[in-house]
């Protein structure tokens, strides 16, 4: 009988996952070694291989884990809201929250997926396409007239671009946090500039 996993096994895997994602995000998948991952985790290389077979397994776990969480967010949001406007607000709020806490994994998904083997890349990108399609269906429900013009997906990609861009300029410790900005993104997308209200932090200032 094989030895069972110790109590902290899953926690250690999560630590390695997070450190590897940070290293891949900063230096790219090809430019990161398992030695660097082990050092960042305070582990020997031999111990690291006890948790992950190789660097490629880490890449798959990071990319697929992130997109699987996004799928869960979509399923939860659509189940909790019945009206399309409410669904979109919840989807955007949860998307902003997830991206705020998983910027490294998101960068790996967008930048390093090209290093995956064909079958793994297609499976992971298929999940990503499902997330985009779910958003697009909500957009189409809000503006069915645009669906016939094939505008639902382009508008959805513009929305994703707006959310992604937040993390290139916004500082979590700044006056505006992600909780404040999620409604702004939604209002701007749904109603244009005239529909945006200043977050409380800005109004107080």
Which secondary-structure class do the elements indicate? Answer: mainly alpha
Large-scale geometry: globular
Number of domains: 1
Unreliable residue runs: none
Q: In CATH, what is the homologous superfamily?
A: Tetracycline Repressor, domain 2
**What is the number of beta strands?**
0
What is the number of helical segments per DSSP (H or I, 4+ residues)?
Answer: 11
CATH domain class: Mainly Alpha
* CATH overall fold name: Tetracycline Repressor, domain 2
Helix % is over 70%
Average pLDDT rating: 89
Termini gap? 65 Å
Second-tier CATH architecture: Orthogonal Bundle
> How large is the radius of gyration?
20 Å
As a percent range, the share of strand residues is under 5%
Tell me about the largest β-sheet: none
What order do the helices and strands follow? Answer: HHHHHHHHHHH
Compact overview of the structure:
Helices cover 75% and strands 0% of the residues.
Walkthrough of the structure:
- It is a single chain.
- This protein has one domain (56-204): Orthogonal Bundle (Tetracycline Repressor, domain 2).
- It contains 11 helices and no strands.
- Helices cover 75% and strands 0% of the residues.
- The protein has 205 residues and is mostly helical.
Write the layout of secondary structure elements.
Blueprint: H1 9-27, H2 34-41, H3 45-51, H4 55-80, H5 84-101, H6 103-111, H7 118-142, H8 144-147, H9 152-169, H10 178-191, H11 200-204
